[in-house]
Design a protein that fits this description.
globular; mainly beta
């Protein structure tokens, strides 16, 4: 199965910024929604942001509103998560995911293709 591939994680100081990229899997022949999730050690995977097909709609977790921006470039088959004003509690492995349909979706159960994740560490 083709899977999306994340990149762009790293270590950043609190207050800093990072951009995560997601190379689309190519698995879906038609429109598909994209989303970002994160998982910290010992915690459940949680929703961060989602974007619909053709980028017309987005949805964010409360923790991401005002700091993170999700976008996509379908001509380039890439999704993005721009993160600003990062906090130590944002430290986690971030996963890109894809879902059938127009979206956007906030439930992990809607997503059927998952990347391997990229680590984001925010130091205080």
């Amino acid at each position: 199965q083709k899977l999306p591939v994340e990149s762009g994680g790293g270590v950043v100081q609190a207050g800093g910024s990072l951009r995560l990229d997601c190379a689309a899997s190519g698995h879906f022949s038609g429109g598909f929604a994209m989303g970002w999730f994160r998982q910290a050690p010992g915690k459940d995977r949680q929703f961060v942001a989602g974007i619909g097909w053709r980028s017309d709609k987005t949805v964010y977790a409360d923790s991401a509103k005002g700091r993170f921006t999700i976008s996509r470039d379908d001509a380039d088959h890439t999704g993005y998560l721009q993160m600003t004003n990062l906090k130590p509690e944002d430290t986690a492995t971030y996963y890109c995911a894809e879902a059938y349909g127009l979206g956007p979706y906030s439930s992990r159960h809607d997503y059927t293709a998952w990347g391997q994740g990229t680590q984001v560490t925010v130091s205080s």
